[in-house]
Write a structure and sequence with these properties.
- There is one protein chain.
- The chain is α+β, with helices and mostly antiparallel strands and 148 residues long.
- The chain contains 3 helices and 3 strands; from the N terminus they run βαββαα.
């Protein structure tokens, strides 16, 4: 059976067109997710709850052409704004050559993002003060007694 152009997923073969950019959802590199829930890299190399903004910042700093879309991954059950978004990344130029030589596949892009997100300033500053407030809120729940 021969497919004509009208039934193909991509009507263009040009790798520089925006619909040909690769997709990176935060769920792909989230260490809190299982493989069945959509994670695509090993949990040891993944990041805890990455955001689209962090992925965008890392890839822009690496010199790649990126843009963010307001989309959800089908397996993401949480509809919060924090988990919303999809980053489209241009890996190949119009002539078929790679934009940045170290990124030759989707996996290399995902591994790089997962490696660089913990080094972001927003991540290194947050880690110090967030733990104490969560412990205090849990303490209040334990002291409640049953109503008669």
């Amino acid at each position: 059976m021969r497919l004509d152009r009208s039934t193909m997923a991509h009507l263009t073969q040009n790798p520089a067109d925006k619909e040909r950019f690769i997709c990176v959802y935060p769920i792909y590199i989230n260490s809190k997710k299982t493989l069945a829930e959509g994670r695509r890299i090993p949990a040891e190399k993944a990041v805890e709850n990455p955001s689209c903004a962090e992925i965008r910042d890392v890839l822009t700093a690496a010199g790649l052409n990126v843009y963010v879309e307001n989309k959800m991954h089908p397996r993401e059950w949480n509809r919060d704004v924090q988990f919303r978004g999809r980053v489209r990344v241009q890996v190949k130029q119009e002539d078929g050559s790679f934009c940045v030589d170290k990124f030759t596949s989707r996996r290399e892009v995902m591994f790089y993002v997962a490696e660089m997100i913990p080094k972001l300033k927003t991540r290194t500053q947050k880690s110090g003060g967030g733990d104490t407030s969560s412990q205090q809120s849990e303490g209040g729940k334990k002291s409640k007694k049953k109503k008669k």
